[in-house]
Amino acid sequence: MLRQSARIASAGIVRQAAFSSSRTASRAVFTRFIHASRTLSMATPKPGPKLTAETYSDIQRSAQFKTLNSDDLEYFQSILAKNEIIHSRDPSDLEGYNEDWMRKYRGQSQLVLRPKSVEHLALIMNYCNEQKLAVVPQGGNTDLVGASVPVFDEIVLSLANLNKIRSFDPVSGILKCDAGVILETADTYLRENGHIFPLDLGAKGSCHVGGVCATNAGGLRLLRYGSLHGSVLGLEVVMPNGEIVSSMDALRKDNTGYDLKQLFIGAEGTLGVITGVSILTQPLPKAQNVAFLAVKDYQAVQDVFVKAKGELAEILSAFEFMDKRSIQLTKRHIEKDTAFPLEEEYPFYVLIETSGSSKTHDDEKLETFLESAMESELVIDGTIAQDKTELQNLWKWREMIPESSQCQGGVYKYDVSLPLKDLYSLVTAVNERLAAKDLVGAESEKPVIAAVGYGHVGDGNLHLNVATRKYSKEIEEVLEPFVYEFVSQKKGSISAEHGLGFQKKKYIGYTRSDAEINMMKDLKKHYDPNGIMNPYKFI
Amino acid sequence: MLRQSARIASAGIVRQAAFSSSRTASRAVFTRFIHASRTLSMATPKPGPKLTAETYSDIQRSAQFKTLNSDDLEYFQSILAKNEIIHSRDPSDLEGYNEDWMRKYRGQSQLVLRPKSVEHLALIMNYCNEQKLAVVPQGGNTDLVGASVPVFDEIVLSLANLNKIRSFDPVSGILKCDAGVILETADTYLRENGHIFPLDLGAKGSCHVGGVCATNAGGLRLLRYGSLHGSVLGLEVVMPNGEIVSSMDALRKDNTGYDLKQLFIGAEGTLGVITGVSILTQPLPKAQNVAFLAVKDYQAVQDVFVKAKGELAEILSAFEFMDKRSIQLTKRHIEKDTAFPLEEEYPFYVLIETSGSSKTHDDEKLETFLESAMESELVIDGTIAQDKTELQNLWKWREMIPESSQCQGGVYKYDVSLPLKDLYSLVTAVNERLAAKDLVGAESEKPVIAAVGYGHVGDGNLHLNVATRKYSKEIEEVLEPFVYEFVSQKKGSISAEHGLGFQKKKYIGYTRSDAEINMMKDLKKHYDPNGIMNPYKFI
């Protein structure tokens, strides 16, 4: 250990083992994986997820919604082109729209509408509202709480064909685009213009710009660039009655009336459909560093964070942590030629990213920081990326955890906020609880492989992934409401960034007061009196 | 000029002329000025502002509001202590609550309530709502659009006695405090704990933390720390019916339901009364630099900004500009012993502030930036502060402009957002218009002294101040709706950071669409069905 530590402390920077593929490649794999697994579920006996309506048989289809009929179809055909409509009674034809990424939820929609214009989308909404046809707005369908797939026969309203960049101003950094632009597409376009999207996340290759706004996604760089409530400048929204409300012309500062767009950021498509986004982007950093460090316990994770906030300050752009089990799980799943950057295993790992305007200054800050962290034995091992490929590969050890947790059969995902000091205690408690019920282990008859913890320390945001060999009511009942009660006792939030969706609808009371919940229900009723927008979810 | 330029280019840093007082002193003077001028208006024949009801005789008191009677007073006396109630029919007793900072608006309230607890404030609101007594929530009363003073006989509900810091967590940086804490008090407390408030503005010594949230204030460092929609984590709000809705426990990330607090940020007290604020503060920068530069035209202001964004990037914390007339006006008003930092006058000035974690790195970045800006003759003169006193004094030349514009008799203030390229064109257009009508000049018979422009280039936010010898309908009619029409044509916003208040209520249509305005009116009606919250204003 000491020998390795000395590598950083003396040489300042250490060469890593060769890495084979890039971060972008990792995302492509991620996207491919989703599609491949879906194809697999059709071609092999491996069953698809059970119908949500079967798994949760206490939820009933609401009788207030009309069932789709041939007149409705005719109407949609009168405004949309053939290739904008997918209609079928065969579940396999609509699988990609009915099933979620975790393969935990499956809806029964028989109709997907993919309008190419906002005006057409508005006509669809107006019709559905009048006819009381329930609708699920869907972006890239990378949601993790069952928010973006139907529960019963709701119509899927896909934003995928609204996918144009509208404008970009390099002086102000304001990007305007359709909601259906893929996040990575927007980011690539911005990078060509000296800017970056002020948010990054693993599902970048699939998720939509509109979707990240609708779910108020946080991601990997919230620490640096702040929340979407601050960076989104304007939205174009189609209301349930088909009215188009737009604040797309807004400049950086605009204090003329209530900030209506904020209502739709994080509303998960329950108040209206986001069709356009205006967002303040950030200048492309000229220098970037990534360090992958090992520490002896969770207390050291916190201490390294406080030290990094103080010393790396304005150049700190990400501070992520992973526990030993997260990395063990990832080692089993990651491409064979991707060597783990450290020689040994440790209880906790920390990934630090810096982004700045001077490579020399940033290197100096990071090296000074690491030298003193090693000297004081706060950090016990570590490596710094030497080039872009290494940087991307260090990130891979963080970004591959979700997929590695999911790929064996399924994953129960909990995304919570907790006071920093209590952040990891939930993972310990859940592992103890699973062990006590004899549900977890390496043996194939144990339903749970491991409960792993990782996440955004800088934001007080923990991801607890319970990797399973299959989904089962037994596991779910051990985990819920236990996890929510635990978080509530610590005054945390039961959803930090993933939202409520279907999974957490009934648990909102663990985080919000009755006064708040009543106010939310009242808002929902006010804007969507027929309740057609993404029903059975959220509030 | 070249000689001066060479000062920066060669020596890197130039010593300034001696400055006598600190920035904090400047704020104290600012606060004192307000009080002094008010005392003055009582002691001398100089008349106070005309009653708003007289100046704007087209606005009628709404008959739906009850007039205060002895039963009401008795009720308030039953819940509040004597020193929490100010009641009088003599206007001079309530002058400070009825008159705005610009001395442009004057209300006729006969009752000020200053509760010391949120529960008492809730009882007051509940009573006023039931009795249909109109209410104006008031913080530090430094508002610039007539939002914080009554128009007729509304009760003033002052937050001044709710002034406690509730808690601060140095690890997460989360500050929780009462709404009535003075911004400077909060900032001083935070500095003692290694942090700063993520917003700064000239009225810091008087304005309240709750007030800056209620008006969504922007201020001097929005460029670096973003908008309050991003940094406010939770609010405690008393609704018109007296219900207390709180999200004060929220951590940095919380996606559980609609983000209700956003509704109240910038609502100017028209939906509820903010009584508590939870906000993410920023680490205290270890190094700070301020440069005061001269450039030859507005195009150069833009070019310096783009260059600074690219080269100073993550350490750039403020980028302000001022025109020649702003500085000329300030020279007449500023303390005699405060020497102007440059030897000559120039068409435009730029103030650049950097904040970072390494003095050496920041100095190097700033010097490299300035050397190349001087070499290319983008910057034609300038100076860098050598110590904290000089830094504060350079800031004074920016911060004293509002007071210098107001002190001769009055000021028409316009705070607008415009695309950067068009930002200054409004000032030119207004000066031409005033000259054409023969309203502006150094002679004492001319009603207007000058129309000056300055503001936050980084945010596309211009402050246009029309300094007058007295308020008059004639001037107002030359300026309005001209200014709003101009801004609307350029797709700007008629209020960047000051809000709508009384002044801009009827002009909101220049920035917002009918669909948006209808939605706002609907929200207002929904949450404040009796319309008692800050009436005659906003929407």
UniProtKB/TrEMBL annotation, chains A, B:
Recorded superkingdom: Eukaryota
Family matches, as Gene3D superfamilies: 3.30.465.10, 3.30.70.2190, 3.30.70.2740, Uridine Diphospho-n-acetylenolpyruvylglucosamine Reductase, domain 2, Vanillyl-alcohol Oxidase, Chain A, domain 4
GO function terms (MF aspect): D-lactate dehydrogenase (cytochrome) activity; FAD binding
Keywords attached to this entry: FAD, Flavoprotein, Oxidoreductase
EC numbers on record: 1.1.2.4, 1.1.99.40
Catalytic activities: (R)-lactate + 2 Fe(III)-[cytochrome c] = 2 Fe(II)-[cytochrome c] + pyruvate + 2 H(+); (R)-2-hydroxyglutarate + pyruvate = (R)-lactate + 2-oxoglutarate
Family matches, as Pfam families: FAD-oxidase_C (PF02913), FAD_binding_4 (PF01565)
Statement: the UniProt record of this protein carries the keyword Oxidoreductase: yes
Domain FAD-binding PCMH-type as annotated: residue spans: 105-284
GO biological process: lactate metabolic process
Coiled-coil intervals, chain numbering: none
PROSITE patterns found in the cross-reference section: FAD_PCMH
Assigned GO CC terms: mitochondrion
Keyword Flavoprotein set for record: yes
Cofactor: FAD
Similarity comment: Belongs to the FAD-binding oxidoreductase/transferase type 4 family.
Name of the protein: D-lactate ferricytochrome C oxidoreductase
